[in-house]
Amino acid sequence: MNEVETRERICLHAKSLHDRGYTCGSSGNISVLVDRGVLVTPTNSCFGRLDPERLSLVDRDGNHLDGDRPSKELPMHLAVYRSRPGDRAVVHLHSSAAVAVSCLAGLNLDDALPPLTAYFVMRIGRLPLTAFHPPGDALLAESVGEAARQHRAILLSNHGPVVSGVDLDDAVYAAEELEETARIYLTLRDRDFSPLSLQACDELRRRFGQQSSSSPFSKDR
């Protein structure tokens, strides 16, 4: 996919996410690696009204090359790319259910959501929770970069999810799966729900490449 097509694809996914309520106002940001550097949604831009020609273009060090001024979360995106050289896209949302989960007390810092469905385990694996840092803060980028070494998806405390992928479609679909699982969890959390077993999770991770490890939510541990 060339840069022109990538710009159009970013705007297409962004509008779809906006129209379905995954973002509001000027929240959220998307970036994709291209030959000339990194395309990223501009600061204070709305996912529902992006212009492909005005997307920000920066080099791999974050220097602004073209387009509107980049999102203040650019350092966080760059930190993910440094930690995950095989990934080429990052999606950060303020999606309601995932944000709500990120505000709950007592979450496990190493695994904030239970393995409720096969597709969550396949697309997300384990979901670490970072400490709170203000948007755009250097400490936020540092903590995300550290977590991204072993995880493609990270939940920012009182903020929202960050998800990377081998391409833009992969990152968006994983972010959508995370939000759906957060919705299901909020529906079930006051009930006696049954997450996937450790054996089932390990088999899914073995088949589909996610890291194998125990979950505090599994009841047969």
From TrEMBL:
Keywords: Carbohydrate metabolism, Lyase, Metal-binding, Zinc. GO terms for molecular function: aldehyde-lyase activity; metal ion binding. One of its GO terms (biological process) is pentose catabolic process. It holds the Pfam family Aldolase_II. It comes from the Bacteria. One of its GO terms (cellular component) is cytosol. Residues 8-186 form the Class II aldolase/adducin N-terminal domain. It catalyses: 3-dehydro-4-O-phospho-D-erythronate + H(+) = dihydroxyacetone phosphate + CO2; 3-dehydro-4-O-phospho-L-erythronate + H(+) = dihydroxyacetone phosphate + CO2. Its cofactor is Zn(2+). Its EC number is 4.1.1.104. Belongs to the aldolase class II family. AraD/FucA subfamily. Catalyzes the decarboxylation of 3-oxo-tetronate 4-phosphate to dihydroxyacetone phosphate (DHAP) and CO(2). PANTHER family: 3-OXO-TETRONATE 4-PHOSPHATE DECARBOXYLASE-RELATED, FUCULOSE PHOSPHATE ALDOLASE. This is 3-oxo-tetronate 4-phosphate decarboxylase. It comes from Caulifigura coniformis.
